[in-house]
Amino acid sequence: MTGARARPDDGAPPPTSLPTAEVIPIPAATFRTLLLVLLAALVLAAPAAASSTQTTRFEAPRDLLDASTRSAALDEIQGFGVDSLRVVLLWRNVAPDAESAKKPDFNTTDPAGYAWGQYDALLTEAKARGMKVLLTVSGPVPRWATEDKRDNLTRPDPGEFAQFMTAVGRHFAARVESWSVWNEPNQPQFLRPQFDSRKRPVSPRIYRALYKAALKGLKAARVASPRVLLGETSPRGTGKVVAPLTFLRGALCLDARNRRQKGCGKLATAGVAHHAYTTRAGPRFVPSGPNDVTISVLRRLTTLLDRAGRAGAVPARLPLHLTEFGIQSTPDPIFGVSLQRQEEYRALSERIAYRNPRVRSFSQYLLRDDNPSTSGPVSSRYPGFESGLRTASGRAKPALDGFRLVLSAVRGKRTSSLWGLVRPAVRATAVQVEYRAGRQGAWRKLATVPTDADGYFLKTTRLVTGRQYRVTWTAPDGAALAGAATRPVK
């Protein structure tokens, strides 16, 4: 189903009618033990029962910002059952004389002063198709809008950015459902400096000024009640990258004890955006840095947000939006996993996000892989991302079928838990769960499993070593679809 999806409990299958049974007295001590076990189970199950929704977004700049591939890409994305896009608009790409240190003579708040190009065409077609757009306005910026005029990244001028956001709001407001400010502002390829000469983070305060400027610009454009997301942070810190929790504490003016510093007011925001990428170790990877946030440790981020809410730095109980995510595959020899493992990890990541009641959106980054370099050593030929559902040449990966019909298999001691989603479903339906022995065996029917109204399903089956699973589904138009082969993971 397109749009928001309600969360059924990802626990045991729905109860069935039970026959009348003889009532047998239970000793008091046994009853107390059973009661404690039941209460513990209810506590553990509580997050899954939270009243939350989760939407799917798609980001595919290579395909969507190219007029020759845009319509076909939108057809495919909508065919998956996705009706929401993330588009990153780079200020430098639309500004006049972007490489000049001297500001040109033009009205910076007038949309007519900018060359909107393919951004204009994309948002117009998305609007015509009834698709929602999250527009992330970001650097690099025109050199004339920076502090030292030597590059397109160092200390963008908040005043200039507010004027640019006024023009953006006036031009795109009718085609944008929500907004966010800057792409990965904790990364030096989008914002500089990240640290001062004493290795203290400075990018958080630069970002805070830019975020407030964006709000000012949208207000000047008379955008009614804009939904603006904060953050868009990358997942891990290094000597050159500020860790996401460190970055957010700085941007929200929180000290080491999460108290709001004097002189910093509450930031208005509709939620926090984050890019919870993991490593080739998979979604269960736990980063050693306590201020890093990958998909396995989203609680670190929501804990900080709750503390920030209690400190009055942001509204309470902010939702979390995972606005960029993907699993990289071969042929990247450094970050890529096998094609089958790519979809297994992607599906498990989506399952983890679904289980977290604070996550309101989950995104797929790339339809096609970025183009590789054709020269140099193999280790350096993949500077982009190989997280697409198709290869750079357009060949479908298993992840394409797996994204349409999601299946995540988790192995327990005696059972395997099969969770999934019929993403194109618009109402309750049913899937066939199939299995095979090993990689080449014939597929056999395991069960017919009903979904909820949003297309989610859950099936528990006995653990059989070596089995692989997939789901098949017949669409309303009669098309027979099959998902990717999936091996249970721990």
TrEMBL record:
Residues 1-10 have a biased composition (Basic and acidic residues). GO terms for molecular function: hydrolase activity, hydrolyzing O-glycosyl compounds. It comes from the Bacteria. SUPFAM superfamilies: (Trans)glycosidases (SSF51445). Residues 1-21 are annotated as: Disordered. InterPro entries: GH, Glycosyl_Hydrolase_39. This is GH39. The lineage of its organism: Bacteria, Bacillati, Actinomycetota, Thermoleophilia, Solirubrobacterales.
